[in-house]
Amino acid sequence: MARALFRLSAREVQTLKKPGRHADGGGLYLTIDPTGTRKRWVFLYSLNKRQREAGLGPASEVSLAEARRKAEAMRAMLRDGRDPLESRKKAEAPTFGEVASDYINAHAASWRNPKHLDQWRMTLSVQKDSEGAWIDGGYCASLRDKPVSDIGTDEVLAILQPIWSTKAETAARVRGRIEMVLDAAKVRGLRTGDNPAQWRGHLSHLLPKRQKLQRGHHAAMPYKDVPAFIKKLRLVRGIGSYALEFTILTAARSGEVRGATWSEMDLERRLWTIPAGRMKGGRAHRVPLPDRTIEILKVMEQLRKEPEGLVFPGARKGSALSDMALAMTLQRNGGEGFTTHGFRSAFRDWAGDHTPFPREVIEAALAHAVGDATEAAYRRGDALEKRRDLMVLWADFLETQPRQPRAA
Questions:
Q1: Is 227:334 a contact under the CB 8 Å cutoff?
Q2: Counting beta carbons within 10 angstroms of the beta carbon of residue 224, is it exposed (0 to 12), middle (13 to 18) or buried (19 or more)?
């Protein structure tokens, strides 16, 4: 049997020049081209009445012994009822993470808001830190290393079901992004069949209809609990914790803080000027800086590498902190169930309950438009000095220590 299988010798493989196929047995052949110079290994087999040929590599790179090992592996697949070519395609198929990265890179230029890029990377788990580790918290972490051709309904449901009712808006976005990545994979010929992430006619039969009332609400920590949270946050000395505290102190949106550059900061005038292009409302916004924000900026200045660079840089050179970095800092320090954006609501509630400042000043501190276009035209100032007093009071409130319970 061994002789029937192993007909060729290593010497023959080197010296043979006759064009055609030379059998080694068991479906393994050395194929020589018409010139007699190019030699390659092939494995021929029949499955479901179809003749198939699997290339095993050029003889100049694959030895006779290695070709025999590959052929035996393919014979083992056939004995198990598997198609060697299909099994190899599946093994060589790109992962979901790789296809998602390609999709993001192809579409990033069309997304006007940099926040969209961060959200896609965060939810699809395709971003790594400076040490090559996957960033914690991605919803699709269980998919990233799976061949994109193997992802089915069960894998999609495993991601969506835990968050479908508790984080309805996020779950809907995650589902849509998975669907788009899998559609792109199908167009590229990397998978076949229906998309397991599509809603209509598929997941709509397996998941309850999303509650639209959840949309747009940001869980806010009660303002009375924020000082204690700040105290705990200051025990963590990292860029994420400094950025989060700066966000709370200024009542700014997280994207405005994460994208802040040193050119926007005027430490001497204690003023942060955010250009119109980075503001949600498309208007430049001036933010007065109380003492603690200046302290944070001086700490970050010690880490400053570029004169005009980011104030709160991310792990990768030239990249900003991700929105997930702030969210994870919040969650890990006692802020479970709350959102970074919710601190703006906490500030709004505190200012309305505990300060004499009029609504217009408070809304201006949040960079909200107040009144109609005519009213805005007459009120050309931004109440900077009044807002400075307001933000100092907010910073002072955050410094207060909660009363400690007496020992029982």
A1: no
A2: middle
Question: Tens digit of pLDDT per residue, the chain (408 long)?
Answer: 344 788 999 999 999 999 999 999 999 999 999 988 899 999 999 988 889 998 888 998 999 999 999 999 999 989 988 888 887 776 667 889 889 989 988 888 887 666 677 778 777 765 554 444 444 446 888 888 888 888 999 999 999 998 888 878 888 889 999 999 999 998 888 888 899 999 999 999 999 986 544 444 567 899 999 999 999 999 988 899 999 999 999 999 988 999 999 999 999 999 999 998 888 778 889 999 999 999 999 999 988 877 778 999 887 777 788 888 898 899 888 888 888 988 999 999 999 999 999 988 999 999 886 554 434 433 445 688 999 999 999 999 998 754 443 333
Contacts within 8 Å (CB) and 24+ apart, 179-184: 180/103, 181/96, 181/99, 181/100, 181/103, 181/124, 181/148, 182/148, 182/151, 184/99, 184/102, 184/103
Q: Who contacts 171 (Cβ-Cβ below 8 Å, separation ≥6)?
A: 160, 163, 164, 210
Phi first, then psi: what are they for 352, rounded to 5°? -70, -30
Q: Report the alpha-carbon distance of residue 183 to residue 177 in Å, rounded.
A: 10
Cα separation of the two ends of the chain: 86
CB atoms within 10 A of CB 211: 11
Integer angstrom CA distances of residue 96 from 121, 154, 164, 171, 337: 13, 15, 21, 18, 29
Tokens read off for 196: 């397991």
Residue burial 103-136, b: 16+ Cβ < 10 Å; e: rest = bbeeeeeeeeeebebbbbbbbbbbbeeeeeeebe
Q: Radius of gyration over alpha carbons of the chain, in Å? A: 31
| Per-residue tokens: 385 | 């000095």
Integer Cα distance of 301 and 107 in angstroms: 34
pTM: 0.50
Q: What DSSP string runs through 121-159? A: HHHHT--B-TTSPBPTT-TTTTTTTSBGGG--HHHHHHH
Q: Quick one: how far is CA 152 from the chain centroid?
A: 21
